Please model this.
Amino acid sequence: MNFNYTDEQLMIQQAARDFAERELLAGVIERDDHAIFPTEQVKMMTEMGFMGMMTSPEYDGGGMDTVSYVLAMEEIAKIDAAASVIMSVCNSLVNWGIEKFGTEAQKEKFLKPLARGEKLGAFLLSEPEAGSDATSQRTTAEDKGDHYLLNGTKNWITNANCASTYVVIAQTNPEKKHKGINAFIVDKNSAGISLGPHENKMGMRSSDTHSVMFTDVIVPKENRIGDDGFGFKYAMQVLEGGRIGIAAQALGIAAGALERSVRYAQERKAFGTEIFNHQAIAFKLADMAVKVENARLLTVKAAWLKDQKQPFGNASAMAKLYASEAAMWVTTEAVQIHGGYGYVKEYHVERLMREAKLTQIYEGTSEVQKIVISRSLIK
Ligand code: CAA
Model:
């Protein structure tokens, strides 16, 4: 067992940390306040290769492993979790699935520009009436011979406006239930696609979330990923990897809250001494540190399993569940340690707390992770 990162992994971690502190920190409160998409910052992340970091060099990506991705995600999420989810959706929900299951023509046409960061991607699974119950897809993809006709509505779609390439999950044969579902690569500029307003979210406010409506959208047959009926399994497998990204994001949020709290506790004085010297605060920090470290171990383990080409679905569910619950707890304690200052925006921890909440919800709620984990116990 080796707990050391390689020199390359450490270099990526340092590059992400420097970038986040240099380019993301300054405007993060304003972007969050006014729900401003981080256009310039995403451009810089693209130039640094973060948007296609796990895609093979053969398809113009960075060819980095999942552990490196986790390290980069943690550093970016520490400072600006909304920026990290844009990166996570591109890397794990869109690029990885197309690389693993797409045809050579799909990779040439869609994956390469995504991996170069020239285009951003979005993953469209959730619907108004299909969130956790993902098999209940109401969006239809009618087989018309040489093309499919898409109709329906997708909800809560991250990157819906900034993305050019959508991966859409839709039902082709309702009588076959989940075995009738397909996954399609859809050009966002296709006729018949319209977007709802930007969602006014509690946290991750600068990420670009909309509902997406499809009205008789023509999708060429060659844009279907995998065999007819593979779409639900495709979505589940892609989400196994996606959950590692969200675990890393939750880890970053928790680690960021811990770092800020440790600093604050050494500066702030009460009852004649720095509050770190009060056991009530020191013990909170100790508990926070243990949760952060546990979250890191589970997340890096899931990433490592994926890199070793071993099954990682259960590990990614455990990492996502634990890290997001830890993030919620740690950020709540961080606000408590900061007292009144924690409740105002300048000290960042209230934002981290709002961001933590979403990690318990998207890419499978904590309850969904428990379904996955408990089922694995009797397999
Ligand atoms: N890999 C491959 N196949 C899988 C699989 C996996 N990980 N998980 C399930 N399957 C297969 C099953 O084997 C089964 O196939 P067969 O019938 O051939 O055996 C089929 O899929 C149906 O599986 P289940 O019976 O387990 O399905 P279920 O209805 O009980 O649902 C669930 C299981 C885990 C709850 C699933 O619906 C789920 O993960 N729901 C949550 C959806 C989700 O995570 N949404 C996130 C949206 S994306 C997002 O959030 C992006 C963002 O904004 C950042």
The chain is about 50% helix and 15% strand. The pocket of acetoacetyl-coenzyme A is lined by residues 85, 89, 123, 125-126, 132, 134-135, 156, 158, 178, 232-233, 236-237, 239-240, 313, 362-364, 368, 371-372 (CB under 6 Å). The mean pLDDT is 98. The first strand starts at residue 121 and ends at 124.
